[in-house]
Amino acid sequence: MPVWTTTTVPQRRQFAYWREMICEAFLDLTPESRLREGFYGRVRQRSLDQLDLARIESQAQRVSRTEADIARSPQSGYYANFQLRGLGVTTQDGRVAVTRPGDLTLIDTTRPFSFEFGGDFSQLTLHIPEQLLEGHLDRPTPTATRISTVDGVGAAVRHALTAIDAGQLAPASAARLARHTCGLLAVALDQPEPVGPVRERQGRLLTQALNDIDEHLRDADLSPARTAVRLGISVRRLHQLFAGRELSYAATVRRRRLDQARRDLADPARAALRIIDIAADNGFADVTHFHRVFRQAYGCTPAQLRHRETGH
Fold it and tell me: S-S: 247 plus which of 27, 67, 158, 251, CB 3.0-4.6 Å?
């Protein structure tokens, strides 16, 4: 079962390696990100006879399949992407699907598309040869449409994907279940949830808000008011964007600052920095508060994590 991770190369090469990784694991793609040094990405891929299931974990980025990419690798087929963590925006053929944890969407590899992730994310990606899906459909395949997996056939697709990903099935059984999942997915695609203009704008604004948080994460004055001004919306509207998410604006900022502090503590190149300096660099003015919320988030102290990851 192949596993690729950017942690195997020096920080200065991590994003470049990520570009190489996803092209090798999937097909020719063009990723872009504000992040460069210290970029984290991991792909674990499971072969399922004619299909493949991959678990992807990475950071904020935009991934496109352009006309040039298609010309270089004219691979036909589909990818069904099941969101596990974070928020994604999928665009293809003029349609836009905003996916949150528990949502699924489909893209066609023969036409241009893009994915946008405003922050850290993870997803399961099932590669499906066209003949295994199109044989089950009575109409053109509706790509870039959101499919809920809360109940009904969507829930059956979710259970199948998570069962395969768990790795407890025999290879032959996992391959049979993957083929069966194609039929379930075709049924779920018959009635995808419509994505209206209002929802599209909400998704885009939320992505912009998450991007703003990431861009200004180390700013001491990062606040709802500052983000709202940069987005050209009211503070009330900003909070409404986060109302349906697991984390509020403030909790999102705190979590992302903690995630960045964790990466800094695990970085051997930053081993000479004091923990209080790393806390301050990531927006925590009160080191006692930083220790408390860090332990709540990761189950260990900053010093314990640093020692475990770097030996210092």
Answer: 251
Sequence-distant (6+) residues with CB within 8 A of 284 are 257, 261, 290
Q: List strand residue ranges (DSSP E) for 93-187, in order.
A: 95-99, 103-108, 113-117, 121-128, 147-148
Q: Read off the pLDDT of residues 170-212 as tens digits, 9 standing for 90 and up.
A: 999 999 999 999 989 988 887 655 545 556 677 778 888 888 8
What is the number of other CB atoms lying within 10 angstroms of the CB of residue 218? 12
User: What is the number of other CB atoms lying within 10 angstroms of the CB of residue 288?
Assistant: 9
Helix/strand number for the chain, H first, E second: 12, 12
Residue 309 to residues 116, 290, 304, 312, Cα–Cα distance (Å)? 30, 19, 9, 8
Q: What is the pLDDT of residues 22-39, one digit of tens each?
A: 999 999 999 999 886 789
Neighbours of 225 (CB within 10 A): 12
Q: What angle do CA 119, 83, 192 make, to 5 degrees?
A: 125
φ/ψ (deg, to 5) at 30? -125, 95
pTM higher than 0.85: no
Residue 77 neighbours by CB under 8 Å, 6+ apart = 108, 109, 127, 128, 129, 130
**What pLDDT shows up at residue 232?**
79
Give how far Cα 269 sits from Cα of 173, 226, 264, 287, 306, Å. Answer: 45, 32, 9, 21, 12
d(CA 235, CA 247): 16
pLDDT in the model for residue 152:
83
Q: Which residue has the higher pLDDT, 148 or 258?
A: 258
